[in-house]
Amino acid sequence: MSESHAHDSAAPHADNGHSHAPARTHFEVRILRQNAPGEQSYWERHKVAHEPDMNVISVLQRIAAQATTIDGIAVAPVAWDCNCLEEVCGACTMVVNGHVRQACSALVDRLLEDNAEEIELRPMQKFPVVRDLVVDRGRLFRALEKLHCWIPVDGYYDLGSGPPASPAQQQERYPLSECMSCGCCLDACPQYTKIELERREGETDEQFHARREAAYDRNFVGAHAISQVMLMNLHPTGTMQAGERIDALTAEGGIQVCGNAQNCVQVCPKHIPLTRSIGRAGRAATKRMFQRFFDR
Amino acid sequence: MAKQRVMIVGGGLAGLAAAMKLAELGVDVDLMSLTPVKRSHSVCAQGGINSVNALTRQQGDTEWNHLDDTVYGGDFLQHQPPVKEMVYWGPRIIDLMDRLGVPFNRTPEGFRDQRRFGGTLFKRTAFAGATTGQQLLYALDEQVRRWETEGKVTKYEFWDFLAPVLDDDGICRGCVGQDLVTMEIRAFPADAVVIASGGCGLIFGRSTMSMACTGSAVSRAFQAGAKYGNGEFIQVHPTAVPGADKLRLMSESARGEGGRVWVPRTPHDPRDPKSIPENERYYFLEERYPKYGNLVPRDIATREIFNICTHEGLSVDPTRPCVYLDLTHIPRATLDLKLGGILEIYEKFTGVDPRTAPMKIFPAVHYSMGGLWVDYQRSADGGLQLGNPRNQQTNISGLYAIGECDYQYHGANRLGANSLLSCIFSGLIVAPSIDSRLKSQKGIAADSSSKLFAHAVRQKQAEHDALLKNSAAGRGISGVGRGGENPYRIHEELGQVMTRAATVVRYNSTLAEAIDSVHALQDRLRRSSLSDTGNWTNQNVVFTKALRDMIPLAKTILLGALKRDECRGAHFKPDFMMPGIESSDPAEQRRQAEAWCDRFEANTRKWLKSTIAVLDVNGEPQLSYEDVDTSLITPRPRLYGLVGAEIIEQVWKERQAAKQLSNNGAPQSVAHPEAVKN
Questions:
Q1: What is the pLDDT of residue B671?
Q2: Is pLDDT at B474 greater than 80 in this prediction?
Q3: Which of A53, A80, A205, B660 is close enough to B244 for a disulfide, judged by CB 3.0 to 4.6 Å?
């Protein structure tokens, strides 16, 4: 921790800036690798030199640079996904020491406090592995399409300001709008199961794409998407299509699949009130069902 | 039946704004991005987006003031017509984003709340917590997804732009891209290609930018003949949290909401900062710049923080340079409401709660003000002629650039909260420009000779294969080629060279050495060996290609900085500083002020020019200089904090008035009621 230097140096007899425990020079990392979709995964062990302020991304960068396992065998660098390294882009989600989270905010010293033996990295479990720690999260974005998660404005010409909103409304919408589509909530969800399709012989790109999307659409959309529906439905303009979104949300693979395990809200790195969104969406769906029943 | 199509490279604010506007105009769009567009670097923008608004208007603010703050803050290095157009669009852009669902913070009455940013005296910045970029990006992402379901936009995510495809007449007919998963290389015929790939921070190793900000797409356009403007102007943000893997931005909004920068007056004072009494603290920005205080423009704040740590020896931490950015006097609830997002970042990555302890921050490379040179068509009233195909077009016909990767709008130093505006604005206005181009164009790129595209693909495939083959042949037990060079280590060295030579302060000797170092790195890079020679999600080869393409940009940045012997905005050379006036004798003061103004005018004649780089046949940058359109606001000295600023300003104004008189009512500038005040 950056603060520890200042505190330690202020403390008596700790002029080296470290505590009494022997300084750690190296640590071990165990990574579940997979060369390509459909191939067998395997564990690989690496040894990394310890530096101050490391996170899992910098660990993977060192491994890429050394490209040698703990046994001295030359290997291809581990593939992983990352971008902002500030925990706002949602790219670097993986399973670190058994917990699904962003690799960038997984600080090495903290991880070693919990388990001094090693750091374990594996890909998310609910998405098809592309390679090593890289997974295909296309299904997550497909759910946003299926549920019409956008404000259907009349166009982009100048039509004046948006509808007024109270601070309370803004504060209700804002946390939902921080969802970065990282997929943690899906990986932790017992109802969200992996869908991995193989290309059939003679199938074109378009055909394969369509078949995959159909499979995605039949299966559970997940907490993130339900919460996005509530975000759109809370907007004064978005609410005009609230019914359509609720219809899409109650179609096959919709909110009724949710088993209320509440794992989603516990793993959400942005502390988004996902279960509250689910509760509200459920009530909206019930209301809509009665409305439609009596409107027949 | 083939239709006209447009390829957009990059899915941040600019690329998405362009995509949705083109779709609205009925144009089919392909969108290529290294990452899923929702993960683009625009998500990291924190503080807000500028425009004049109902509130500031009544305090005397106008679009013209916003224009003036932008060009003054940018040290007059931008063509003024595009900036004028942008600031006049500002209010409409905020309105549009509001309509698209961005949860802007609200006042108790339900209006959009505003905060203050550096370089202005008005509360002109709309914001959504401290994650404004994220919210704006998501709103645009949602609109583009909507068009995607209607078939107007096709996304190619996890694709790398390799090169534009130019026909025999040098017209851009599409591009070559590579699938980052399958490594397939293919051509995309396009009737216009728009580069919207963001900044090039990775050239400096660690910066506040994302890992996708390699500058490679821009460099590939540059290598294909596109001109690069103002390369040497790299903004170093005054406040960032130093980290081992990257430098995390601490937004200017922290100061906009009342954050105070200080150091203990006693060097390395070991006390808990909260226990240090007020009179033993040095609020150096507030003392030195009473008018703007902690909200001086970024180049000034950056240099002051850098100086106080390095030259004045007042760094808070004895082992590494940093100063306090203090929010602890602000109520917790206010902080959570307005700055929650960034405070969480600090807390998460340092383990310290900035609501109760002052943050430790230091400047970091943040924004590329230089970029691909782009054209514009000036309108009679000094703005842009909308819908003219020249707007945002590079010197290559059919190749456009928008957002951070073009060189317009910011000049020598970017005004805080103007980047989001410029990105969305350039994205929105490029659409009608391209639409006009498509309407007047005969033929469709997809019908161009298939040989053209096949040749381009073959060439890129050959380069790719050669890189893998050399590496495989040279691969030794270390995992890196036998005698071969490791690209990751070369990148680390490049970052060190660039950070040392071309960030806060610049010296010609260091810059010249850095150019030699980059040449040496380039030689080593030619001998690089990859530890992965496969053809499936090979991040190793993609990185190596990006690194190779950083070299021409790195050289351009260094050479531009070496040649420009002056101080201007983000470019600061102590050897060419113009010191203030120390004398207390009025006559002597006056004489020195006259001399100062003479020197300023001479410097302006020589250096108030855009640096334009092209690559010669050997791939070496060649520089030339282009006049800047300053027809709206006459350049004047930027006198923030200079000793004797008052007398210099007085002499300067007298000179301007005399000039005005001798012109005798024949104004060179566009008539504007407020123009005279400048």
A1: 43
A2: no
A3: A53
For residue A86, what is the DSSP state?
S
Using 50, 70 and 90 to split pLDDT, how confident is the model at A295?
Answer: confident
Alpha carbons A61 and A57: distance in angstroms, whole number: 6
Task: Tell whether A23 is within 8 A of chain B (Cβ).
Answer: no
Which of A123, A124, A92, A97 is CA-nearest to residue A111? Answer: A97
On the question of pLDDT at B411 being above 90, the answer is yes
Within 8 A by CB and 6+ apart from A59, the residues are A29, A48, A108, A119
pLDDT digits (tens, 9 = 90+) for B331-344: 999 999 999 989 99
What type of residue sits at position A11? A
Indicate whether A6 pLDDT > 80.
Answer: no
> For residue A273, what are the contacts with CB-CB under 8 A and spacing of at least 6?
A175, A176, A227, A265
Size of interface A-B (CB pairs under 8 A): 225
Which stretch of DSSP H or E encloses residue B73?
Answer: helix B63-73
pLDDT higher than 70, residue A239: yes
- Chain B: residue nearest A90 by CA? B39
Minimal C-alpha gap between A294 and chain B (Å): 31
Question: Are A105 and B348 an interchain contact pair (Cβ–Cβ within 8 Å)?
Answer: yes
Measure the CA–CA gap between B630 and B390, rounded to whole angstroms.
Answer: 19
- Are B219 and B557 in contact by the 8 Å Cβ rule? The answer is no
Q: What is the pLDDT of residue B17?
A: 98
CA–CA dist A13, A9 (Å, integer)? 8
**What pLDDT, on the 0 to 100 scale, is given for residue B503?**
96
Cβ neighbours of residue B521 closer than 8 Å, sequence gap 6 or more: B490, B493, B494, B497, B551
Sequence-distant (≥ 6) Cβ neighbours of residue B584 within 8 angstroms:
none
Name the minimum distance, in Å, from the CA of A60 to any CA of chain B: 11
Query: Looking at residue A5, what is its pLDDT?
Result: 41
* In chain A, residues 224-283 whose CB comes closer than 8 Å to chain B: 231-232, 235, 237-238
Nearest CA in chain A to B93: A158
Q: What is the nearest CA distance from B608 to chain A, expressed in angstroms?
A: 35
**Nearest CB to B319 within list A1, A5, A151:** A5
Nearest of A202, A204, A184, A181 to residue A192 by alpha carbon: A184
A50 CB-contact burial (10 Å; exposed 0-12 / middle 13-18 / buried 19+): middle
Q: Does A12 touch chain B (CB under 8 A)?
A: no
Under the banding of pLDDT at 50, 70 and 90, the label for residue B665 is: low
Q: Is B134 on the interface with A (CB under 8 A)?
A: yes
- Measure CB to CB from residue B98 to each of A57, A162, A171 and give the nearest one: A162
* Mutation site, B25, B27, B43, B350, interface A, largest A CB count within 10 A: B43
Q: Tell me the shortest Cα–Cα distance from B612 to chain A, in angstroms.
A: 30
Between CA A65 and CA A77 the distance in angstroms is: 8
- Residues A121-175 pLDDT 10s: 999 999 999 999 999 999 999 999 999 999 999 999 999 999 999 999 999 999 9
Residues of B assigned a catalytic role: 298
What are the pLDDT digits (tens) for B475-508? 444 444 444 889 999 999 999 999 999 999 999 9
SS (H, E, C) B240-286: EECCCCCCEECCCHHHHCCCEEEEECCCCCCCCHHHCCHHHEECHHH
Say yes or no: A1 contacts chain B, CB-CB below 8 A: yes
Which ipTM score applies to this complex?
0.93
Question: pLDDT of B446-470, one tens digit each?
Answer: 998 899 999 999 999 999 999 998 7
- CB of B537 closer than 8 Å to CB of A130: yes
